Q: What sequence folds into this?
């Protein structure tokens, strides 16, 4: 679940959001900048479909494109996706502009999987709250 922050577009699943994207509504800019648009995903957590912390899901087209090109890419699918993750609080959220962006996301996701602890989850949650309050430059 997610609050609608963009104009309906039947081709949206093919194009990731980018800075200045004209599909984002005026209220959507505020929702996305503060990450309020993610709040309904807690329903997914309650249903057991997602976790609070874990690798963020990628676009299907990115999964198809990078699954064979990036080592351990599919390992991140061994656990439930999260509302927030180590990659996102480490600066790798939002638009994938280069292949290095997705490579680094996967590296952080794998690090999280291999080093999971309750303390790490708590640290990620607090960093997420801090980033939402200060505003993240890649939140658009």
A:
């Amino acid at each position: 679940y997610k609050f609608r922050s963009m104009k309906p577009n039947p081709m949206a699943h093919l194009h990731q959001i980018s800075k200045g994207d004209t599909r984002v509504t005026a209220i959507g800019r505020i929702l996305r900048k503060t990450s309020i648009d993610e709040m309904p995903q807690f329903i997914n957590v309650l249903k057991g479909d997602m976790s609070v912390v874990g690798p963020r899901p990628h676009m299907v087209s990115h999964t198809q494109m990078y699954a064979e090109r990036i080592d351990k890419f599919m390992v991140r699918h061994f656990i439930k996706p999260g509302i927030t993750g180590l990659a996102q609080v480490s600066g790798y959220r939002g638009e994938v502009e280069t292949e290095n962006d997705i490579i680094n996301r996967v590296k952080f996701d794998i690090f999280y999987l291999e080093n999971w602890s309750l303390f790490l989850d708590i640290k990620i949650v607090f960093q997420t709250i801090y980033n939402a309050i200060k505003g993240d430059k890649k939140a658009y």
Summary: The chain has a mean pLDDT of 87.
